[in-house]
Amino acid sequence: MTDFTEQDLSGSTFRRVDLSGSTFEQAHLRGAVLHDVDLSGARVRATYLDGVRMTGVEVPDLEIHGEIRRLVVNGVDVTAYVEAELDRRTPERALMRPTTVDGFREAFSVLDRLWAATVERARSLPEDALHQRVDGEWSFVETLRHLGFAHACWVGGVVRADPSPWHPLDLPWDEAPTVEGVPWDRDVRPSLDEVLAVRAERRSVVADVLADLDDAGLARPVSSATPFMADAEGLDVAQCLRVVLNEEWEHRLYAERDLALLA
Question: At what angle do helices 101-123 and 237-262 cross, to 10 degrees?
Answer without folding.
Answer: 20
